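Comment thread on ticket #2218

A.B. wrote:
> Attaching the input chain for the structure job we discussed in standup.
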Amino acid sequence: PILSGLPLAEPVAVRDARLHVGELGQPLIGHLGTYGSPIASLLVDALAELLGRLNAPHVLLMGTGSEPFRTSFADRYPQYSRRITASGPLTDSALAAHVAACDLLIQPYPDGISSRRTTAMAGLHLGVPIVTTSGVLTEPFWEASNAVRLSPVGDWKTLVDHVDQLLRHPDERTRLAACAKTFYDGMFDVERTVAALRTAA
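C.D. wrote:
> Ran it. Output below, let me know if you need it in another format.
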């Protein structure tokens, strides 16, 4: 696995990040990435389905490339332009705060989530619920973990159903967030990885 490169977020920084995005009380859905073409094309389809079906959420795009992606998406779907914000490049601490401010992350991958997806690992490490895709590189333990919500690549209906269900049920979102954090700490925490390497040696 490739571990999360982000620190844990300071509560005050999380609060401040949330106050500057969307409207107070509005659900916030985030995406963290670099917006390379394979994932960007999936993200366009996912966001179009999401924003076309759900009226309430605001979308926060985070990471290098988020600003040009937002511009391109807004040009294609101008009706959703006011419901999407791009953070642009941020320091690690500020990025952690913005990720932690999200109610959930939507992370479609063309080959499915895996433990080598640092953007997914960052969300798990910060205890943010993740809705993502399963594919050829998705390890079996993801399904068994109950730490993320999975849909097949390209099945936007199921993906948006997961988002809708989590937004409607805060208790389930809280449970998933706790499960994500526990799963990361139990499977991927650096101390556990070092211990496993020492045992293997």
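A.B. wrote:
> Thanks. Noting for the ticket: Strands lie at 28-32, 58-62, 84-86, 104-107, 130-134, 149-152.
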